[in-house]
Amino acid sequence: MLNFLYQLPEEEKQELLDAIPVITLLIAGADGVIDDDELEQSKKITKIRGFSGHESLQEFYDKVGEDYAARLDRWLKVIPKDTAERTEHLSSRIAQLNPILAKLDIEWGAKMYNTYTSFAKHVAKASGGFWGFGSISKAEEDLIGLPMLTPIELPEEEEGEV
User: Fold this and answer.
1) What predicted TM-score, i.e. pTM, was given to this entire model?
2) What's the pLDDT tens digit per position in 111-126?
3) Domain span holding position 63
4) What 3-state class would DSSP assign to 9?
C-alpha cells in the first residue's frame, strides 16, 4: 500500500510519478537520439512492473501506467532538442526529487531510489547491442545510476531487492 504517496502534497506526488517518463527521456536521449525502441520498452517496463514487479511497488507502477503515454508525450513536447541542454534540464528535474524522497521513511525512500535507478538501467538496455551486450552507450552509462539523486540505502539487515 502506498500510503506515503497519498500523504504527500499533490505537486510532490506528481513529481514522483513524472520521474518515470523523465528518467526514460534522460536515458533514451543521452546518446543524442531518443530511440523509439527505448520509449516502447519504457512503456512495457512500466506495465510489467505494475503486475509482476516488486509487490510493494506494483501500485505505484499501476498509477504511473494510468497515463504514462500522455505524460511521456507531454515531456517530449517541452524538452530541449539539444542533447546537452536536454540532459541538463531533465537532470535538474530528477534532482528535484531529493527533498521529496528525503521526506519518506527510509524504507520507502530506498525503494523509490532503487526502482528509479533500476528503471533507468532497463531503458538503457532497450536499444542496440547483440543479445543485450554492448547495448548501453557511454553517455547512458554515465547517467543510469542517476547521479543527481542522493542514494538512499537501508541498513544491511533491512536490505531487499526492489
Assistant:
1) 0.89
2) 999 999 999 998 988 7
3) 10-158
4) coil
